[in-house]
Amino acid sequence: MKVFISHSTKDKEIVDRIIDKLKSIGIEPYVAESDIQPGTILWEKLETNIKNSNCVLAIVTKDASMSKTVNQEIAAANALKIPVVPIVEKGVHPEGVLAGKEYIVFDKNYPNQALINASKYLSSLKVKEESKEIIVILVFAVLLIWLLSQSGK
Fold it and tell me: Which residues of 122-139 are buried (b: 16+ CB within 10 A; e: fewer)?
């Protein structure tokens, strides 16, 4: 499972902790600044990686809530019907594309509980995604068996 992490670059410390936590549970995090592609148009790179992700983890801090790019990333995920999991800093009130959506609250000084809650939720999404893949494989296997049985007739 691949998770696009939408965040302000000013929140590197919390993002690094989230990356470590996600990797520890077998989830592949994507962070744009770790994927330097000189000459590439930044928005195209972001949009491509949002499309290639199973969900977007939006880290909404005071800095991120004012970031045009973070809001564009969340809007793009919504338009592409990719689930957005907001983690919102205590005291920040999501507006715009996140207004009215349920979210996980975190305290920048004590983010562990929020990380645990987000990890549990993402793990449940991962299980659902893996279940879909198993169903697709089974359907193809049944179809292949049926086709092979028909070719002998």
Answer: beebbeeeeeeeeeeeee
**What pLDDT digit, counting tens, does each position of 73-103 carry?**
999 999 999 989 898 999 998 888 888 888 8
**CATH number listed for the domain at residues 2-126:** 3.40.50.10140
| Sheet-wide strand order for 104-106 | 28-30, 2-6, 55-60, 84-89, 104-106
CA–CA distances in Å: residue 11 to residues 49, 61, 112, 149: 20, 8, 15, 58
Q: Distance between CA 102 and CA 94 in Å, rounded?
A: 10
- Helical segments of the chain, H only: 12-24, 42-51, 62-65, 68-79, 112-151
User: What residue spans define the domains of the chain?
Assistant: 2-126
**Are 79 and 72 within 8 A, CB to CB?**
no
| pLDDT tens-digit series, residues 96-152 | 888 888 888 888 777 676 666 676 777 776 655 655 555 555 555 555 665 666 666
